[in-house]
Q: What sequence folds into this?
């Protein structure tokens, strides 16, 4: 299998790194292209991949093509190569907001197209990517796409109608989590911790709590109750969060994100 990556920036570079580091394919079977010389040079220096002279050369030498171009540049880039596609190529797009229908219109309705939504933890191999595909994609093709995207964390198949929800609770979620960590750290500083220690405690608490839920498979409510002793410190904090409408605010924020994504 030969993999081509158009766009070698943060997310494209992260997926490239995952593919190489996990041995999905040999680096000799990866070809990339980016309009930025520095991005191309970085990919060569770090991973030893081949660089195409342009996107058309990349298409001619790829069985799978990952589109990692920013959404605002995707239309112009695809217009330049619309007639260069091989109908057997599996196309994987990580462009936010670009639907399967939009991709089919700009690439070809007879092409095998996978749309996905990664999140920024993919930059360190801890991402979670939502994946959906058009009718031309076989089960074997889906396995290939999920294998590639899993190089940077988890990849979960969803229907396209669920993709807006994926944006709300996964794609954009790191921003909410960072705000929560920042707020906890601020409280820690107010209580006497140094800033660096406050960040380390807060971030580690979030990381460890998430890992505990995923590894045990227990309901988050059950794990919360395990920490809350009768008349204790934790239940006092939980009561303040409940009185402040914490759950409702989080749900409203996710809903606003989902609705905004539908508007774009």
A:
């Amino acid at each position: 299998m030969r993999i081509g990556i158009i766009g070698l920036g943060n997310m494209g570079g992260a997926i490239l790194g995952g593919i190489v580091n996990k041995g999905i394919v040999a680096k000799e079977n990866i070809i990339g292209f980016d309009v930025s010389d520095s991005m191309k040079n970085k990919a060569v220096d770090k991973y030893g991949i081949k660089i195409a002279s342009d996107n058309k050369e990349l298409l001619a030498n790829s069985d799978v093509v990952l589109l990692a171009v920013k959404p605002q540049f995707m239309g112009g880039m695809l217009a330049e190569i619309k007639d260069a596609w091989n109908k057997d190529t599996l196309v994987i797009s990580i462009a936010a907001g670009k639907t399967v229908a939009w991709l089919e219109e700009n690439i070809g309705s007879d092409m095998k197209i996978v749309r996905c939504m990664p999140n920024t933890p993919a930059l360190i191999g801890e991402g979670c990517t939502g994946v959906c595909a058009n009718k031309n994609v076989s089960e074997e093709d889906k396995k290939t796409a999920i294998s590639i995207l899993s190089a940077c964390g988890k990849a979960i198949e969803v229907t396209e109608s669920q993709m807006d929800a994926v944006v709300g609770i996964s794609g954009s979620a790191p921003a909410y989590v960072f705000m929560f960590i920042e707020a906890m750290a601020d409280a820690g500083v107010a209580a006497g911790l140094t800033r660096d220690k406050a960040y380390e405690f807060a971030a580690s608490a979030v990381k460890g709590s998430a890992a505990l839920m995923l590894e045990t498979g227990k309901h988050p409510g059950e794990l919360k109750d395990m920490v809350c002793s009768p008349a204790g410190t934790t239940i006092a904090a939980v009561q303040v969060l409940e009185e402040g409408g914490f759950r409702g605010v989080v749900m409203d924020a996710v809903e606003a994100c989902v609705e905004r994504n539908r508007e774009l």
